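== Item description ==
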Amino acid sequence: MINPIWLDTFITLVETGNFTRTAEQRFMTQPGVSQHLKKLEEACQCELVVRLGKGIQLTEQGQRVYRYAKEQQEKEQDFIASLKFDAPFEGKCVVACSGAIAQRIYPALLALQKQHSALNIHVEVAPRRTILSGIANNTLELGIVTNQPESEDIHSEYLGEEALGLILPRSLPDALAAQVPGLSENAQGFISSSGSGSGSGSGSVAKVASVSGKAKSKTDGGRTLKAVIKHLGLINHPDAMHYLQRYFNDCGEAELANINPNKLPHTGYINQLSQILLPVSEGLGYTVLPTSTLDFVSFADKLTVYKAKNEVTEPLYSVQTPHSALPARYQVVKQAITQVLG
């Protein structure tokens, strides 16, 4: 077994690139640093660094030993963190969720971490199937997904609802606007936090007004909407097909109920949540996303949410393994998440 003290000294030497700074950081003498390096090279039976004046350059073997040393260091840190099972405000917490949910919960988790600096919170953005697989395989401890999983290998708890919206460009191309003059009466605008129209330079966060507001859908609203999505085309993203199917099934627009989302024309694709609405704002297509996404874009005044007959929502659930209790710190994190999503 390679002496971990030699490895720690080697890590510092690689990251400082200098024997003098390594000695200062490790509270050693320079000859002591050289001695650790020599013993490590003898243990590895190869040369790890080439001395260049006061600096160093790693050999190929040195690069491999550095990667190994860092992996060992991280494993030790994770192991020590795992022993702090009952420390409610200390240790590493990993939460996996969709990008839209991450946008909603991350500010609250940062506030929690700021309050308790020993907490180490990691938010992993991942699709539903990856989260459920991670929970089932014990590679994840806590996740948030839409719709309650049916697997006996996963324990779930209801958190709240997430509203979905069919998001369109506020300004349609002239040719399309002429074909669907009733659209403006069926589209939901935005209000700023002060109650006036929002703009990208106002500094206020754009809020989506209630999708189930007072405006009535026209009798030909479904046909109008069908024409819009046919002409605009879908800005596709990893969850688009799932969201579209849910929206078509639940929105109450008869003309949409029999549409196959997989056969709709596409005009673009992007898998970065922060960018999905950009082509929509430029009039290049439409998409379906959680309406909370609109709180995080600076160009909300260029977007509109269609006022369907029914509000469309998805239930949100926390998921974890059913056979073991989560560390106490996760209960604190779950409480913060529930306050945001509940």
Summary: The mean pLDDT is 83. The CA atoms of residues 10 and 37 lie 7 Å apart. The radius of gyration is 27 Å. The first helix runs from residue 4 to 16.
